[in-house]
Every structure is written in C-alpha cells, then in structure tokens.
Amino acid sequence: MSARELAEVIKQNVRRVLVGADKPTEMLLVALVAQGHVLIQDVPGVGKTTLARALAKSIDTSFSRIQFTPDLLPSDITGAYYYNQRESQWLLREGPIFAGIVLADEINRAAPRTQSALLEAMQEGQVTIEGETRDLPSPFLVIATQNPIELEGTFPLPEAQLDRFLLRISMGYPSREDEKRVLLTHSPQSIRHIEPVTSTRQILDATEEATAVTVEESIAEYIVDLIRATREHPAVQLGGSPRAGTALLRASRALAALRGRDYVLPDDVKELAVPVLAHRLVLTQESMLRGRSAEEILQEIIEQIQVPVEAEA
What we know:
Number of strands: 11
Distance between the termini: 28 Å
Radius of gyration: 20 Å
Organism: Thermobaculum terrenum (strain ATCC BAA-798 / CCMEE 7001 / YNP1)
CATH architecture of the largest domain: 3-Layer(aba) Sandwich
Pfam family, one: AAA_lid_2
Keywords: ATP-binding, Nucleotide-binding
Number of domains: 2
CATH class of the largest domain: Alpha Beta
GO molecular function: ATP binding; ATP hydrolysis activity
Strand content: 15-25%
Oligomer: single chain
Structural class: alpha/beta
Domain AAA+ ATPase: 34-175
Strand order of the largest sheet: 2-5-8-1-9
CATH superfamily of the largest domain: P-loop containing nucleotide triphosphate hydrolases
C-alpha cells in the first residue's frame, strides 16, 4: 500500500465517527509519517479525543489518554518500579507513555516538571526510569491538546517543549452541513465499531517512502528564506531555528508522499509553514500588545518571499 492509499483509507475510516475532519486527520498523518508530534490548540467539544482514538484504531496500535492536572507526577506518565513480594523482585509498572498514540489532554494544566517528562519521549522515542532506558513503540505519536481561552490554573508550555511539536493545528468548527450531520448521525458508541484498516508496518513503510521524496535545491532555498525572514521581521523577538527549517522540510516530504508525489512542491511548504513555524516564534511585547499573532506575521512573510516557480514547473 502506497502512502497515498494509506492516507485515503485512514481518512475514510475516520469519517465513520468524525464528520468534516479530513484536514486535521491529514495533518496527524503528516506528523506520524514524519515521526513528529502534534499540538492541537482548540476549544473543548470539537472532536480532539475522538480523532486521536479513531486514528489509533485505524492503525491497529495501542492508545492511551493522559489527563493532565496540577497534581500529576512524572511517574504517573512514565511509570515506576514496585516491589513484588511474591517474586521477591522489583518490577516496572509501565506508564501510559508506553503506547503507539498518546493523547496528552490539556497538557498546559500540569506543572512544568511533569510537562518535561514528555521531552525525552518525544525527542528520543525512549524514557529513562530509575536510570534504566526503555524504548517506546514505533511508530510513536504524541497528540497534546490545550485550550487557548482558559488561562486560569494553567502553565504555558516553554519554548523548548513547544519546539518538540512538529505541528500545531486547530480542529475548527464544522460547516453548517457537517454540523447537521453530526446531530443526525453521531453516536457515542460509534467509535467502538472502528476496525483497523492498516498496520504499524505500513506506517513505517510510508515513512521510508517520505524520506525518499525529492527536494530540489530551489525548494531548500525557499525554506531557508522563510526561516531567515522570521528572524528579521520587526514583530518577532525570536525567529525560527535551523531545527524549524528541518521540521518544515520533513513535514513537506511527508505531505508530498501522502498526496502521491515523489517530489516536494512550493505549495507543500506554503501550506505547512504556519502549522510548523507559528508556535516556534516569540513575538515582541509591542506586537503582542497590538494583538498581532504569529500566524498573521507568517502569512505576511509567505506573501513577501519569492516562490520558486521553476521548481513547481
């Protein structure tokens, strides 16, 4: 099964329980194929948990949900050793991080020490417990959520942790027609009837396919121009790092593969620039007081940077 076929069967399967979510589903697949992670920043009730569960069921991989709260401890995520009196030895009780797809719900409600328990897992695909390092499943995807409106009792994610997320996306509200279909067809039990349509092996094959996607030199220069422009923009205090450019390239390769191409187009880069870069920018105090957003500034930059038309041709 090609990466494009994989994307189509998964999106079709997710449609059985979630209406109008093709775009968020595709973005999760981009992160999964590019071996990254996703931060969904949106209001409650738009289907974030349903999407994560439907994706896990579609791929036939393990799924766990961690409800982040102020009293959550790092060991509640990674697990801990306990003494088994019957066997007279210390055994590891694995935490919910040991799953193929992990939903970190309301991640900004946990204290920074607990948030940082995810850093090693997201960056290295492993966790260290009591000095012992254990590998996590492959593929491994963290889907974190946070409410952009409710700020009381929350701990904003530091820049170092935000940088671990390949994409930051929003589910958005459905169209009027889709919302009517939700009212007429939605059932809380429908998620239980989702069956796997692919395997983790096919996801890993899609990852290999994405790494083979061709990137012309003009596309690489276009990405560099975008990243450097974020550092030079007067409204930005801290622009994109070289790692941000690498992330944009990885995501663009994955998107091209999922759409059935073996080459990256400038349109792939333009489409992913905001979800890949917006959460990595730190705006100046003056621009924030004026109500400007990183998304708005990135759109300005995209319009200003010359697109390599010859590469698209």
